[in-house]
Write a structure and sequence with these properties.
The chain is an alpha/beta fold and 472 residues long. It folds into two domains: 357 residues, 3-Layer(aba) Sandwich (Alkaline Phosphatase, subunit A), CATH 3.40.720.10; 102 residues, 2-Layer Sandwich (Arylsulfatase, C-terminal domain), CATH 3.30.1120. The chain contains eleven helices and 19 strands. β14 and β15 form a beta hairpin.
Length: 472
């Protein structure tokens, strides 16, 4: 109990410090280092602490035991670029014009008018780095180094956007590996990616032990094509996909060891999540939704509900499990509150979830969360209730792909559907006909979103939508 009270007290101190910008005598608590680990296409059920019976993930399980594990955490869209845009800006991707998965032919990217997490933290004298997958524009104007990251080493977009793609290779040029803004290799050895990105992360920790830092480790795995190092190949009981998951866990272990060795464990907030759900069409090279409906590319729970773990010893109570709904858009305002950074002057959609990280009974700061696919508003959640609007979606046919070659999808039509996610997270029992008052209440949120963010299903343009960055 004392530890929990201490945690809440620290949270209150942080909030007080942020809201007393004019009180120069106010002592701001030491600001933590922040490490955001964001993996690619991991399913809700791919970790031991989320119920997977085979994959061994002891370090991520340790992270959950020593911190908080969220059961109802969402990405803003179930696809790469849109998801990452939301994480780094605190905005629904529809607000800032970054949708889908930007490819090598894209001529737009994140606008320099948006404020990224890196820019937010640079204002607080943090050293910043991204290692891994960027995917918010590959032209120089859009690269991380133009958006307040001091260092960048990784891929400009997805690791399958290269000539070795099993079904679309001829549509892609050579895949660049970039350091800073310079291409240092083409079609790099992907078996080394997880290891090399981990080594870079540990080196950055070693170099910045005495000053606050922010590391965004955006692992390209377990997005297909799957690759694992020789050191860890064939070690899991779950085939190649299991090897990749366990290597990601190894990576987390290396980072936790580095923090322990440098005495930074208690001074570092470590966050872990995935950018969207499993790519089910790849069969044994795809992940597990943990029993949730559908996967990547859909607004069902399997597409957007993700693992989320946060550890900050002494502030986040060990073993906390949060069941309140929240989203990646909430990371930026949470970190702003923790560090005392000023929020962007323009509108963002996220809200601080520091209370959820520190108090077991804290309510969600959101009245509603929105599920978009591209420009289509397809669902809204408020409390335990989720309302799906009528829409089409891609569902896997009965025979999935295998060994790196995808299976095929078919289009299905969903009618107006209401689910109580507290009792039915699998979205099986449609209660729309028996709960008309709930449907009516949630439709008010739908209309608000349509006016603000737009909706191509009803041909509405949102009044709050901003333009992405474009090549001039």
């Amino acid at each position: 109990m004392n530890r929990l009270c201490d945690s809440v007290a620290v949270a209150c101190m942080l909030f007080f410090a942020q809201n007393c910008a004019f009180g120069q005598e106010t002592k701001v608590p030491d600001r933590p280092n922040i490490i955001m680990i964001y993996v690619d296409d991991m399913g809700y059920g791919d970790l031991g602490c989320y119920g997977h019976p085979v994959y061994r993930t002891p370090h991520l399980d340790q992270l959950a035991r020593e911190g908080a594990r969220f059961t109802d955490f969402y990405v803003a869209q179930a696809v790469c670029s849109a998801s990452r845009a939301a994480l780094l800006t605190g905005c629904y991707p529809n607000r800032i014009g970054i949708l889908g998965a930007l490819g090598p032919k894209a001529e737009h990217g994140i606008s320099d008018k948006e404020v990224t997490l890196a820019q937010l933290l640079k204002s607080q004298n943090y050293h910043t780095a991204i290692y891994g997958k960027w995917h918010l524009g590959h032209h120089p104007a859009f690269l991380p180094t133009r958006h307040s990251f001091d260092e960048f080493y990784g891929l400009p977009y997805s690791n399958d956007m290269w000539p070795k793609h099993p079904t679309a290779g001829k549509n892609f040029p050579d895949l660049p590996l970039i350091e800073g803004e310079k291409t240092i290799a083409l079609n790099p050895d992907q078996t080394r990616l997880t290891t090399d990105l981990t080594t870079r992360t540990v080196d950055f920790i070693n170099r910045h032990q005495k000053e606050p830092f922010f590391i965004y480790l955006a692992q390209p795995m377990p997005h297909v094509p799957l690759h694992v190092s020789k050191e860890r190949a064939g070690k899991s009981a779950g085939g190649l996909y299991g090897d990749v998951i366990e290597e990601i866990d190894w990576s987390v272990g290396q980072i936790l060891n580095a923090l322990q060795r440098t005495g930074l464990s208690n001074k570092t907030l470590v966050l872990f999540a995935s950018d969207n759900g499993p790519w089910l069409s790849y069969g044994n090279h795809g992940g597990s939704s943990g029993g949730l409906r559908e996967g990547k590319g859909t607004t069902f729970e399997g597409g957007q509900r993700e693992p989320f773990i946060a550890r900050w010893p002494g502030v986040i109570p060990a073993g906390l499990v949060c069941h309140q709904p929240c989203m990646t858009i909430d990371i930026l305002p949470t970190i702003a509150q923790i560090t005392g950074a000023k929020l962007p002057a323009h509108k963002i959609d996220g809200k601080s979830i520091l209370a959820l990280l520190t108090k077991p009974d804290a309510p969600s700061p959101h009245e509603a969360l929105y599920y978009y696919w591209n420009r289509e508003l397809q669902a809204v959640r408020s409390g335990p209730w989720k309302l799906h609007l009528p829409h089409t979606y891609s569902s896997l046919k009965s025979i999935p792909g295998k060994d790196g070659t995808p299976g095929s999808y078919e289009q299905q039509r969903l009618p107006m559907s209401l689910y109580n996610l507290e009792n039915d997270p699998e979205e099986k029992a449609n209660l729309a006909d028996t709960e008309p008052a709930v449907v009516s209440r949630l439709m008010k949120y739908v209309e608000q979103a349509r006016q603000d963010l737009g909706d191509s299903l009803t041909k509405q343009n949102g009044s709050g939508v901003r333009e992405p960055g474009r090549l001039k």
